[in-house]
Specification:
Oligomer: single chain
Distance between the termini: 61 Å
Number of strands: 0
Number of helices: 30
Structural class: mainly alpha
Mean pLDDT: 90
Strand content: under 5%
Order of helices and strands: HHHHHHHHHHHHHHHHHHHHHHHHHHHHHH
Shape: flat
Low-confidence stretches: none
Largest sheet: none
Helix content: over 70%
Radius of gyration: 34 Å
């Protein structure tokens, strides 16, 4: 009992403090206090204390209270309804974050209430909020109605009438809340009520406030899934057409952002026969922000396969124009579109009509556009086959050897590797792609070198060990011995490590280990340190006899190295073998 008294008294003392941070932290400990004092004391002592705090506390503390009251609900069991008056007060305050927190807590409590409590207590509470003098309580009511409507029983007509009344509210904030929640309510109402909501929704889409119209377009995708095909043609299609021609670019952008989801809700027939031609309007929009979002939405639409072959072909002229757009964000987005589009239209159309535009994007002034274009090339290569190689290679060679942007060089060599993996032929790789690849493994920037090294195992698995022995390994050894800078030697060490993960123990012992042992005598401590780490990795891919006869002697020698780091890690490696 003393612990309960102490916990409650401590809470009271902290709430009398002038330090607001202390009071906020105290509110975040409400669950702990309630656990200590028990359910009865929570109802008789803690909740009255909170009631007094709600009347006088700052918004920051009220926010904490609103959050924590919802978390108290599981502790109160069937008596959770006692929290409703507190949260009703908090759902009416001026500060938005406090109201939102109170609404979230109420939404978490509703499932714990019986149908009778929901009808008699929650529904009436919401109706009071909806009739409040200030818009703040009415906004909260709008956010709560969809959550209780399905279980509201005899209160359904009153809730429906109040929601429809709020659709015509003078205050824009209330209408915005309605625009957000009308889709949720439409999903739970009866069919006759749905038709009333659709009528109101059509009025909202013509609201004088752009923000209301934008939020309606967010809700449109949910409503479209509920209505029948004929209802969508009658009610939803005109809204979309009007939005494409709206004088506000933000409304057109909102339509573009939600277009793929709306199209999915409307279905294949309406999208193919009616919707896509209207979407073409926003693809040509004068505002770059609209075009950017429209292109992103097109990339989301294409995988849904809602468009016929004829409609796909009709989009080509727009894609070609967007690939020449002066804005980099549009061109970056069109690369994502091209990567999907090529598999839908096939080689005969993609090669003459789209591939030249992708190649032009490889030479764009913007680095991000170039990177995305390089990432798109393998998609075309998969469809076009070796016809894609000859036009692409000059761009890749130029990027790898001359581009000042290392991220572009990584994108170029990654594309070369991806194409090589697609063909799976050492002959094709050697003939067309090998010079670009080998030029990158000793790039002047470490990120490029490490990126190439990381791809070596999958490349060796595809091109086989014969290619490794005939081409890659001699190149590594040659560069390792010729280069004076230690950085390229470290790259070779990392490459040996990567190679050893996909080659047999005998190969590692014969082809890799001697070169690592030689590098263990290098004059640069960083190189010797790299050898220690490589030997530790390589030992796991060697026969035990080889480890004993060839690896341990090198590590023993390095454990007496003049450099303390080399010495320490060599000794540590020996201890693990």
């Amino acid at each position: 009992m003393s612990e309960a008294v102490n916990a409650l008294e401590l809470l009271r003392e902290e709430m009398e403090s002038d330090d607001i941070a202390l009071r906020i932290n105290a509110m975040h400990r409400l669950r702990i206090v309630a656990t200590v004092i028990g359910v009865d004391a929570t109802r008789s002592q803690l909740l009255p204390l909170i009631e007094g705090l709600i009347k006088r506390e700052d918004d920051e503390v009220l926010f904490a209270i609103a959050e924590e009251l919802g978390k108290l609900a599981p502790m109160l069991g069937t008596g959770v309804g006692v929290l409703l008056p507190f949260l009703e007060n908090l759902a009416s305050v001026e500060e938005t974050v406090v109201r939102d927190a109170a609404v979230r807590s109420l939404l978490s409590i509703f499932p714990q209430l019986s149908d009778a409590e929901l009808v008699n207590n929650c529904a009436t509470m919401i109706l009071r909020l909806a009739s409040g003098e200030w818009f703040t309580s009415r906004v909260s009511a709008v956010n709560l109605i969809p959550a209780v409507y399905a279980r509201a029983g005899s209160q359904k007509p009153a809730l429906k009438a109040k929601f429809i009344e709020l659709c015509s509210e003078e205050t824009p904030m209330v209408r915005r809340a309605v625009a957000i929640k009308i889709g949720e309510l439409a999903a739970v109402v009866e069919r006759d009520v749905l038709h009333e909501l659709v009528t109101i929704f059509k009025q909202l889409t013509g609201d004088e406030q752009d923000s209301v119209k934008m939020l309606c377009l967010e809700s449109l995708k949910g409503i479209a899934k509920i209505l029948t095909k004929e209802e969508n043609k009658t009610h939803i299609l005109p809204i979309i057409i009007a939005a494409t021609e709206d004088k506000s670019w933000r409304v057109r952008q909102a339509l573009s952002r939600n277009f793929a989801a709306i199209a999915e809700g409307l279905g294949k027939e309406i999208t193919d026969f009616h919707l896509i031609q209207n979407f073409s309007v926003v693809l040509r929009d004068a505002e770059v922000d609209v075009r950017t979002v429209a292109v992103q939405s097109l990339a989301q639409l294409l995988p849904l396969r809602l468009l016929s072959s004829d409609k796909l072909l009709s989009l080509i002229q727009h894609i070609q124009a967007l690939a020449r757009d002066p804005n980099a964000s549009v061109k970056t987005g069109i690369c994502a579109v091209l990567s999907i589009f090529v598999s839908l239209i096939g080689k005969e159309v993609a090669l003459p009509k789209l591939y030249p535009h992708l190649l032009d994007l490889l030479e764009d002034d913007d680095s991000e556009v170039k990177i995305q274009a390089y990432r798109t090339v393998p998609k075309f290569s998969a469809v076009l086959g070796q016809d894609a190689l000859a036009p692409f290679l000059p761009h890749a060679k130029t990027a790898v050897t001359m581009s000042p942007r290392w991220r572009v060089r990584i994108a170029a060599v990654d594309t070369v590797i991806d194409i090589g993996l697609q063909y799976g032929s050492a002959e094709v790789f050697s003939k067309h792609l090998e010079p670009v690849f080998l030029g990158s493994i000793f790039d002047r920037v470490s990120q490029v070198r490490e990126s190439v090294v990381a791809r070596l195992p999958e490349l060796i698995n595809t091109l086989k060990i014969e290619w490794l022995s005939a081409v890659l390994l001699p190149k590594l050894i040659d560069n390792m011995t010729k280069e004076t800078t230690y950085l390229f030697k470290i790259t070779a060490i990392h490459a040996f490590q990567a190679i050893s993960q996909v080659t047999p123990p005998e190969y590692n012992a014969e082809k890799l280990l001697p070169h690592l042992a030689k590098l263990g005598k290098d004059s640069v401590p960083n190189v010797r340190f790299g050898v220690v780490k490589a030997l530790r990795t390589l030992a796991k891919r060697l026969n035990e006899s080889v480890v004993t006869s060839s690896v341990k002697p090198v590590l023993i020698e390095l454990s007496n190295d003049p450099d303390r780091d080399v010495q320490f890690y060599a000794s540590d490696a020996l201890a693990t073998l």
